[in-house]
Design a protein that fits this description.
Blueprint: H1 2-17, H2 22-29, H3 33-45, H4 59-72, E1 76-80, H5 86-104, E2 110-113, H6 117-125, E3 135-138, H7 152-162, E4 166-168, H8 179-186, H9 189-195, E5 203-207, E6 209-210, H10 217-220, H11 226-234, E7 237-241, E8 244-247, H12 266-271, E9 274-278, H13 285-293, E10 299-303, H14 304-314
């Protein structure tokens, strides 16, 4: 009925154009907040609201997005132009990833998050939105990095504040010296509680790291020695996500380092319905391609330089 559709349009305008929160709209119409969330969902399903991320007016980045999405069968591909320094491109990539995340969120969701400079930019540039019962879960242990802003603990805390949610963290290193120590830590009550939440994550944000030694955060922070990193490269590694190394086909490697990660399992990671990979820079191209081929990520937000490298590798 036209009257019903007019009401949907009215609610959509208040939320998307006037910037009112779901709670404010619920109070105005004396309806529940979940009802408002369902109305907004209906608006998207009926085509009343069409959410589109404008990554650039450039025809090049638009073409790159379409081609990568088609070639790799990803849910979403967002490419931002490489138009400044590496830091500017990283910040723009993070901002675009945050915009994509907000289009996917609903009340009651569980969000997984890993670590890294890309995700720091996501959280830093994310617009504040108020949701009900959002929970942010640190997916792997911490790096103990010099700049704690990039660590999973701080990122989970920061993201939950932006979304009016709660957060759960893993009080352990990301990678330990032996499988025995990993198992002992994962059986500790507080860590075990968090790990049991991994199979209920609805959407995840993951940084994509290259396995080039000078670019690897695991090497930089001392979790993997230069010698072991060389062995990992010889095994065919191109990148790691949540501490797990994989090859250009996206297969996780049968190596010691992958057996010592404290956090989400490889199987749980691949079962998350929506995994957004965030990475920029040409050096990340192979790591992005492997992650997409293996189904480790379902969406990618990246920059023009990395996208061009991905397409170059696809043609080999």
């Amino acid at each position: 009925m036209k009257k019903d559709r007019d009401f949907l349009i009215e609610v959509a305008r208040k939320y998307y154009l006037d910037g009112k929160s779901q709670a404010e709209i619920a109070g105005e119409y004396e309806i529940s907040r979940p009802t408002v969330a369902n109305i907004l969902k209906s608006c998207r399903e009926l085509g009343i609201v069409e959410i589109r991320i404008e990554s650039s007016s450039s025809s090049l980045v638009s073409a790159l997005s379409r081609q990568i999405q088609a070639e790799l069968e990803l849910d979403q591909v967002v490419v931002v132009p490489s138009e400044g320094s590496a830091q500017i491109n990283l910040a723009n990539t993070g901002k675009a990833a945050g915009e994509l995340l907000l289009t996917l969120l609903e009340d009651g969701m569980k969000i997984g998050i890993s670590w890294g400079t890309s995700l720091y930019q996501v959280v830093s540039n994310l617009s504040r939105k108020s949701y009900m019962n959002i929970e942010v879960i640190q997916m792997v242990g911490g790096l103990g990095a010099d700049n704690m802003n990039f660590d999973g603990f701080q990122l989970a805390q920061g993201l939950s504040k932006k979304l009016n949610g709660t957060y759960r963290t893993i009080q352990a290193p990301i990678c330990v010296q032996s499988r025995e120590l990993k198992e002992m830590l994962e059986n500790e009550h507080r860590i075990s509680e968090v790990l049991h939440k991994m199979n209920s994550i609805d959407v995840a944000l993951v940084g994509i790291s290259s396995d080039i030694p000078e670019s690897s955060s695991l090497v930089r922070e001392g979790f993997i020695s230069a010698g072991e990193q060389e062995e990992i490269l010889q095994a065919g590694a191109v990148g790691h996500i949540c501490g797990y190394h994989y090859d250009l086909k996206g297969d996780f490697l049968d190596i010691s380092a992958n057996q010592r990660v404290v956090g989400i399992t490889k199987g749980e990671l691949k079962e998350i319905p929506r995994v957004i990979g965030v990475a920029s820079g040409a050096q990340k191209g192979k790591a992005i391609l492997g992650a997409a081929r293996g189904g480790i990520i379902k969406s990618i937000v990246t920059d023009e330089a990395a996208a061009l490298t991905v397409l170059s590798e696809l043609k080999r």
